[in-house]
Amino acid sequence: MTAITVKAIKTSQEIDHLYELIKIIWPEVFTTLLGEAHVAYMLDNYQSPEKIKSEIDAGVVYYFVEAEEEIVGYLAYDLKADHMYISKLYLLNSVRGKGLSRSMLDWLEHTALDNHKDKLMLNVNRFNARAISVYKHMGFESIAEIDTPFGDFMLTDYRMEKQLSSKF
Q1: Cβ–Cβ < 8 Å for 159, 142
Q2: Residue 98 DSSP class
Q3: Helix, strand, coil abundance in the chain, percent, nearest 5
Q4: CB neighbours of 70 closer than 8 A, spacing ≥ 6?
Q5: Distance (Å, rounded) from C-alpha 118 to C-alpha 10?
Q6: Which of 12, 66, 154, 167 could form an SS bridge with 5, CB 3.0 to 4.6 Å?
């Protein structure tokens, strides 16, 4: 497993740096799945610096993910009453397939347990076979299909969850 370091994103400057990373990652991940117009809309309305700041203000926690002292991705989660919701888990294309997703999910599991949550939940695009495969390999199960209108587009996701072995 590849070692990662996570660093909390809090300042406006860090959010701006994150947005520059997002503008690389999102087209890599989603253009073939959703098309350029949908990705552009998501960048403007779902992952803009203003949206990220409002999510952080509402309690969502964002982190840079580093490997070998370079920022290679990011993640975000929200602690709910009975689970941790993983809202973002993304890597640069150049580092995929090297075990970093496993390291990120292991870190999230430990963080969830440290916060007395014994379940992880996330949404994943139904056409993102690579991500779905990783999540299933890590013990997540698909529990629902969710279609959410988003501007002129539709988000077509699976809701996935993983029950954790509670240590509390």
Answers
A1: yes
A2: S
A3: 40, 35, 25
A4: none
A5: 26
A6: 66
CB 155 within 8 A of CB 42: no
What letter does residue 14 receive in the DSSP assignment?
A: H
pLDDT tens by residue, 73-129: 999 999 999 999 999 999 999 999 899 999 999 999 999 999 999 999 999 999 999
**Two tokens, residue 38:** 């949908």
**Residue whose token pair is 């300042």:** 11
Provide the token pair at 14.
């860090």
Backbone angles phi, psi at 140, to 5 degrees: -80, 150
Name the token pair of 78.
């929200």
Residue found under tokens 């993910």? 65
pLDDT tens per residue across span 38-50: 999 999 999 999 9
Burial (Cβ within 10 Å: 0-12, 13-18, ≥19) of residue 27: middle
Task: Please state the φ and ψ torsions of residue 162, each to the nearest 5 degrees.
Answer: -140, 125
